[in-house]
Specification:
With 164 residues, the chain is an alpha+beta fold. 26% of the residues lie in helices and 28% in strands. Pfam families: AhpC-TSA.
């Protein structure tokens, strides 16, 4: 798959995931250096927001939007994944006054598993994944132009519909 950054095309690498199939299992560290795996997150329907670099404007907007909108929904789990270091993510959270589950993927392992690794830029493609409590991928959006925001409404409506 190809995504663009300011119109310039970049090839995504890794294994493409498909809606309706099991989501690939991953383990990444959070800001407390605790290993968090997909299975740890499936007690509730899960919305994964992936940003290329938390220290850029669109990534910051995306993370704050999901934190505000999904944070008010009972019965869902929200996680943001970025290639940033633990320190960069912690500094952003402190500066923005945001408290949420942030996972860092400096090795781009999540990106490889989910087909969103942008090796040429050393980042993850801006994307959203919704996974039900059985581990099935029920929604995905890989934003075709990196400087654009994702479809917040579609992702949130999908995860809300999974709450029982």
């Amino acid at each position: 798959m190809i995504v663009t950054r300011k119109g310039e095309p970049y090839e995504l690498s890794g294994t493409s995931v498909e809606v309706g199939h099991q989501a690939p299992t991953f383990t990444l560290n959070n800001l407390e250096d605790k290993a968090v795996s997909l299975t740890d997150l499936l007690a509730k329907p899960l919305l994964i927001s992936v940003v290329p670099d938390i220290d850029t404007s669109v990534c910051s907007i995306q993370t704050k939007q999901f934190n505000q909108q999904a944070g008010s929904v009972e019965g869902i789990q929200l996680v943001t994944i970025a290639k940033n270091t633990k320190e960069e993510l912690a500094n952003w959270c402190a500066a923005e006054g945001v408290s949420m589950e942030m996972l860092h993927d400096e090795a781009l392992a999540f990106g490889e598993l989910y087909g969103i690794k942008m090796a040429d830029l050393g980042v993850l493609a801006r994307s959203i994944f919704v996974i039900d409590t059985d581990g099935t991928l029920v929604y995905q959006e890989i934003v075709p132009e990196m400087v654009n925001e994702p479809d917040y409404t579609a992702a949130l409506d999908t995860v809300k519909a999974l709450v029982k």
